[in-house]
Amino acid sequence: MTTILPDAALDALLAQDVPYGDLTTDSLGIAARPARMSFAARGAMVLAGTEEAARLVEKAGGRILRVEPSGTAVEAGAVFLEADGPAGALHRAWKVAQTLVEYTSGIATRARRIVEAAPGVTVACTRKNFPGSKDLSVKAVQAGGAVMHRLGLSETLLVFPEHRAFLSEPPEMWIAALRRKAPEKKIVMEVGSVEEAVAFAQAGADVIQLEKLPPDAARAVIEATRHLTPPPVVAPAGGVTEANAAAYAAAGCRLLITSAPFFGQPADVKVVLEPA
């Protein structure tokens, strides 16, 4: 069972929810009674974070009987995690584990829908996850079959208009300077129009990131730059969802950049906790 979060992080999650014991369970005197717990999907979903949920149960003092791995597609009603142990242990882990699975599985499910809407196209998710949740967000994106667009500012060259506002030289000059300073990196340029896209492609950008431009604009950029050697990768970004992914693919895009999986309802998980 591989988890993306180390035990210390999982301990911290439990400590946030149960800092001084479980007042209700302890006061009722039921903490030592044998119990069992199951997690089931209320609707079809792609699982994520199940390994972390299982480890949370173990850290609280429960025993995992079975758990389905992240990336598994399940139908409504499918049980994907079962555990037993003292009632107090299962109650301690219950809500933290459930909520973690619900949020990460929501991300994974939305990512999978975009991937399935555009077969053969790479779907890359941005770094616009909720601050502090990057590890689990990345795991969820990958569980859904997508990849990460960029993990942060340290490993990619992505030139925004906000960068270019400080530059006075022709783009050919500072693009060449970027290539000298980081020769192993692709140079990505965010643009807001077809004209900008073509100009920066001609100046030497490797990837043209189209900010909120429709599929017909993407097609126009691809047509206008296909003669370049090599032609740039044309990647729509901003507003890419399962509803328009196929249209971008049909326009010739082979890379879609999206934040959509991070925003939406969590998956719905039913937990049954009862005497063993």
UniProtKB/TrEMBL annotation:
The keyword Disulfide bond does not apply. GO terms for cellular component: cytoplasm. The keyword Transferase applies. One of its GO terms (biological process) is quinolinate catabolic process. Residues 107-260 form the Quinolinate phosphoribosyl transferase C-terminal domain. Pfam families: QRPTase_C, QRPTase_N. Residues 22-105 form the Quinolinate phosphoribosyl transferase N-terminal domain. Keywords: Glycosyltransferase, Transferase. GO terms for molecular function: nicotinate-nucleotide diphosphorylase (carboxylating) activity. SUPFAM superfamilies: Nicotinate/Quinolinate PRTase C-terminal domain-like, Nicotinate/Quinolinate PRTase N-terminal domain-like. Belongs to the NadC/ModD family. This is Putative pyrophosphorylase ModD. The gene is modD.
